[in-house]
């Protein structure tokens, strides 16, 4: 056969490595020594003598180690062998010039951080942790860097935890556990025929099932401490929630919750007074002031077309909201879409897609954990890994890390869009799949973001009819010039109060100055309520890291019949963020990236391609806030040839504009504090002027609100001073009025009224007075809104664990 020799060669080629592997593999399995072809030999006679002995016994002298020790390699002894070469050894030892010789064995040295896959029997089925096709959460990426959750404490707020489960016991932490339902320290689930209370135990295993114990699989953070709060197996009240959310906040780092209001597609509900305070207290005081981390499942109401933005827990800025993807990268049927979701982990999907492997009630192991409630604990585990990598991360740092390291990967959705800083974001997935390896790597070197800033604008001066479509835009300076100035966004809220005959017919969008369009609410067919929204803080994460300066647009749209009606009575825009832009957002000039047309000799961009504008030696598609497109002389240092030429560049807005639409002096779109924008675009006039000329134009109230809400600390004394002045003036006016009435001089009343109105405006009391002038009834409503801030949902507080729908999953 012509093929004869080839297979023989091939065989050798294949067998060689196989044999070596076999030898190494076997040896490590059997714990047997592996002998090399190297000898250490002690020859006191010097190098010449060593060379002589080497050649005498068939060695090559590989040089001198130290002192009189030499490294010999034998020509014929195989490199790695399971048996020692006794004969050569004996001959060497017998030579009188050799005082000592030893055949070297391979010592098994493990690099400290050397990682080996867990050996647990179900580990191979944990496709979402590690997968050769890379459709996984890259857990091995984090484990390989040595992070397994050690020293981090996670608590599952659910229906209890089987603390003596053999795959949890070793990591169980009684200090991270409590039974709120029965008011005792033991969170053991209540056992029923139908195993109703298995949910918490299943979630716990996803985080911290023990590794390498030959039981079930492993948790993402398999060395983390895990506890459970039993709180869903009984009446859930505001107090039960608050107690659970504020358990041992100096000990517990991460709380994972997979519950919320009814997922029926018609509920609008959120945390009540105490739970709200628990969140706030947690992020402010928890973890020694770094802030408790609340990981939240976005909901299972997909089939009912529910919106997670109508769930005040997941819609909260204090919760890190997690959605699900199926194994194949599809949006699961139970998934809810909304703009407050931050990122995604895997969970169940169709029947042909795999589900989640975890610990189960009665010491069992399951591979059928499902739904959005399987996603949140996986995220909690990954966050535990990041926290181990850097214990100094704040609750907001963690959200930044999630935004920066999550990846759209292969996740399928029709609404992936690039936001203003070029990140892909979707209402079904947020910023995409969590990547444990990437978040840990970034966490290690992360420097804390600056303190949270909050800039507030009251946009509406008077109620607006919604009808079929209402669009409101507002140019903002993001509190420029004050210490509330937000340069780089985190969360954005649109706090709306509106009435509508059928709430479910509304779609609400918020468009940022960078053009990012967030769906605050999509139509919900089951929501026939006529209650509207009462100061509901719709939240979006989609403008993260954008510069908020510029025009924001709110669009309210009726998707059904023309006979619907309603009124928008409040639109407050709340911008949260930092005072310094996150460094990843600056676009550096990259030669060949396509946006730069000409680089000078120092590789600095001096001219951009069409559609881009030169800004600080890089090319941008949009000029940053405070700049507008203009032409600038070409700074030609490339050669000697100089032709007068100019390039399109971003130039600073003319004084006193803060932002502008062009470089013309009357194209301001926002103005510095204490001045007022006349027309949009227009010129900036000093505030005093406008109080006289056009009292109460709606910009005044925006500015007023801003000053009031800004940074209370620094403004408080001024506010108190002004208020005291007003109070004194009012007292005088009152006494004056009384005297006037007594003396029967009622004729003076109209002018007095005008005077007090001016006084109120001057007090920067903001919208109340201005609104009062617009529509009298709003004044009362407004007061109620502000006061009821914490109590708007005091009504019913029955919580549905997502497990209730679980039986259907
Ligand atoms: C932790 O962060 C704070 C700022 O939030 C910083 O001042 C401090 O140096 C950091 N500590 C460590 C150990 O990194
Ligand atoms: C997984 O994490 C490692 C470690 O950070 C990283 O090098 C690798 O690129 C990550 N894999 C993917 C697919 O992102
Ligand atoms: C603001 O709204 C008006 C109509 O309400 C519209 O004509 C205008 O284009 C909007 N401006 C921006 C910048 O969106
Ligand atoms: C032009 O380039 C020189 C150095 O080459 C630099 O110092 C100068 O600031 C540049 N001028 C402008 C307008 O960019
Ligand atoms: Ca108990
Ligand atoms: Ca295990
Ligand atoms: Ca929901
Ligand atoms: Ca949230």
TrEMBL record:
SUPFAM superfamilies according to UniProt: Galactose-binding domain-like, Growth factor receptor domain, Protease propeptides/inhibitors, Subtilisin-like
One of the protein's GO biological processes: peptide hormone processing
Keyword Nucleotide-binding: no
Signal peptide (UniProt feature, chain positions): 1-31
Domain P/Homo B per the UniProt entry, residue ranges: 449-581
TM region(s), chain numbering: 716-739
One of the record's GO molecular function terms: serine-type endopeptidase activity
Protein name: P/Homo B domain-containing protein
């Amino acid at each position: 056969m012509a093929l004869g020799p080839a297979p023989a060669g091939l065989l050798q080629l294949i067998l060689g490595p196989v044999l070596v592997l076999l030898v190494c593999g076997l040896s490590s399995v059997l714990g047997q020594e592996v002998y090399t072809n190297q000898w250490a030999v002690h020859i006191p006679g010097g190098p010449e003598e060593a060379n002589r002995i080497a050649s005498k016994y068939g060695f090559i002298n590989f040089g001198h180690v130290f002192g009189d020790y030499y490294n010999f390699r034998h020509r014929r002894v195989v490199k790695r062998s399971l048996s020692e070469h006794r004969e050569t050894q004996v001959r060497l030892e017998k030579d009188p010039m050799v005082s000592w010789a030893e055949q070297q064995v391979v010592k098994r040295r493990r690099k400290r951080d050397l990682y080996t896959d867990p050996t647990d029997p179900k580990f191979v089925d944990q496709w979402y942790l590690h997968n050769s096709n890379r459709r996984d959460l890259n857990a091995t990426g984090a484990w390989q860097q040595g992070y397994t959750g050690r020293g981090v404490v996670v608590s599952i707020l659910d229906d209890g935890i089987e603390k003596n489960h053999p795959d949890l016991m070793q990591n169980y932490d009684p200090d991270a556990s409590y039974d709120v339902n029965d008011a005792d320290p033991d969170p053991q689930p209540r056992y029923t025929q139908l195993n109703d209370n298995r949910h918490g135990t299943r979630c716990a295993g996803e985080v911290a099932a023990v590794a390498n114990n030959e039981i079930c699989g492993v948790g993402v953070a398999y060395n983390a401490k895990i506890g459970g709060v039993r709180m869903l197996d009984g009446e859930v009240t505001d107090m039960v929630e608050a107690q659970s959310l504020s358990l041992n906040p100096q000990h517990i780092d991460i709380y994972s919750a997979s519950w919320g209001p009814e997922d029926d597609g018609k509920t609008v509900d959120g945390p009540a007074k105490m739970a709200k305070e628990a969140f706030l207290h947690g992020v402010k005081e928890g973890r020694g002031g770094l802030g408790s981390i609340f990981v939240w499942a976005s909901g299972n109401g997909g089939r009912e077309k529910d919106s997670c933005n109508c769930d005040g827990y997941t819609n909260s800025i204090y919760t890190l909201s997690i959605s699900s993807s199926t194994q194949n990268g599809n949006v699961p049927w139970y998934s809810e879409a909304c703009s407050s979701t931050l990122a995604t982990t895997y969970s169940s999907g169709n029947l042909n897609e795999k589900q989640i492997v975890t610990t189960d009630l009665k010491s069992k192991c399951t591979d059928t954990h499902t739904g959005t409630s399987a996603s949140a604990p996986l995220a909690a585990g990954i966050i535990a890994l990041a926290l181990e990598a850097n214990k100094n991360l704040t609750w907001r740092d963690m959200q930044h890390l999630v935004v920066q390291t999550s990846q759209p990967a292969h996740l399928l959705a029709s609404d992936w869009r690039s936001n203003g800083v070029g990140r892909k974001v979707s209402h079904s997935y947020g910023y995409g799949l969590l990547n444990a390896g990437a978040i840990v790597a970034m966490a290690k070197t992360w420097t804390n973001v600056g303190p949270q800033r909050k800039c507030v604008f009251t946009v509406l001066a008077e109620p607006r009819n919604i009808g079929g479509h209402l669009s409101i835009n507002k140019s903002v300076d993001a509190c420029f010039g004050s210490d509330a100035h937000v340069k780089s966004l985190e969360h954005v809220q649109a706090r709306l109060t509106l009435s509508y005959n059928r709430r479910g017919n509304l779609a609400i969008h918020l468009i940022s100055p960078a053009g990012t369009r967030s769906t605050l609410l999509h139509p919900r067919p089951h929501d026939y309520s006529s209650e509207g929204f009462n100061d509901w803080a719709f939240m979006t994460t989609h403008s993260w890291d954008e510069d908020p300066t510029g025009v924001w647009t709110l669009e309210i749209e009726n998707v059904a019949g023309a006979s619907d009606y309603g009124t928008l009575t409040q639109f407050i825009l709340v911008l949260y963020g930092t005072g310094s832009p996150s460094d990843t957002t600056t676009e550096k000039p990259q030669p060949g990236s396509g946006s730069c047309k000409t680089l000078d000799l120092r590789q600095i961009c001096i001219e951009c391609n069409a559609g881009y504008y030169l800004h600080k030696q890089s090319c941008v598609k949009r000029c940053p806030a405070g700049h507008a497109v203009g032409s600038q002389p070409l700074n030609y240092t490339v050669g000697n040839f100089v032709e007068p030429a100019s390039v399109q560049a971003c130039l600073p807005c003319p004084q006193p504009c803060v932002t502008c639409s062009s470089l013309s002096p009357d194209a301001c779109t926002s103005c510095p504090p204490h001045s007022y924008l006349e027309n949009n675009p227009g010129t900036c006039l000093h505030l005093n002027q406008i109080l006289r000329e056009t009292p109460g134009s709606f910009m005044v109230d925006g500015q007023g609100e801003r000053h009031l809400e800004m940074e209370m600390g620094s403004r408080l004394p001024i506010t108190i001073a002004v208020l005291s002045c007003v109070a004194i003036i009012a007292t005088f006016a009152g006494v004056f009025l009384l005297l006037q009435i007594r003396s029967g001089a009622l004729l003076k009343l109209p002018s007095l009224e005008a005077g007090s109105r001016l006084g109120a405006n001057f007090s920067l009391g903001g919208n109340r007075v201005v609104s009062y002038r617009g529509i009298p009834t709003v004044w009362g409503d407004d007061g109620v809104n502000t006061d009821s801030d914490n109590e708007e949902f005091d009504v019913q507080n029955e919580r549905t664990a997502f497990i209730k729908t679980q039986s259907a999953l």
